[in-house]
Amino acid sequence: MQQMTTAGRRHRIASDTTAAALRDALAGLGIGAGDEVIVPSFGPGAPADAARLVGAVPVFADIDPRTFCLDPDAVAAVVTSRTAAIVPVNVFGHPAPMRRLGELADRCALAVVEEAGPAEDAGAVARRRAHARFLDSALTGVIVPYSEPGVRHLYHQYAVRIPGNGRPDRDAFAAALARKGVRATVSVPVPVHRLPAHRSERTPHLPHTEQVAADSLSLPVHSGLTQRELTHVAEACNALGGLL
Question: Which uninterrupted H or E stretch holds 228?
Fold first, then answer.
């Protein structure tokens, strides 16, 4: 676990992305009862769980609907005098906007707990990125993943958005793909703020989180896919026309 100080900001990198590691990082920064920790609701529950494990209150902020990562403007909107830290998440392999979040943390004297990136074989990452580039160019009728200029998307998942009426159309699209032999997954079936352990009347409306959770679907992109299999994924999606 690494700790740095930047312009008065305390910055700690957790040893991994589990709730226990994030809890240890928060505790090491002296964050506990009476503090608030800003976390995303779209993604794993570990950041919110970690805040509760140290006695703090998780406060959910909305995401950028293109990257699925915390939106710095939404984070700024929920900062209060009790806010002690921000715990960003790299979603599906797209890096969180650490520069902008760091600038906000500097202005507001907040700590930042960043997740450690997993050690990965460079060849397997390169293959996923090549698969993603193919799907980016081949898919029609769905919204392909977005990458901020200059970032290195690792494509742990290739999450598209299905146009239409949210969850019913997304689920119908997934079922139709399954009938064509393509296994697509719903990576975030329920946003964290809706889970029983984290429901609160204080949670602000999170429109982008709700919409992305309702219409996103992860297509196969793992390094073991053949070109023939990738082509079948694209053709199966395109045959559905985006809307059902």
Answer: helix 227-240
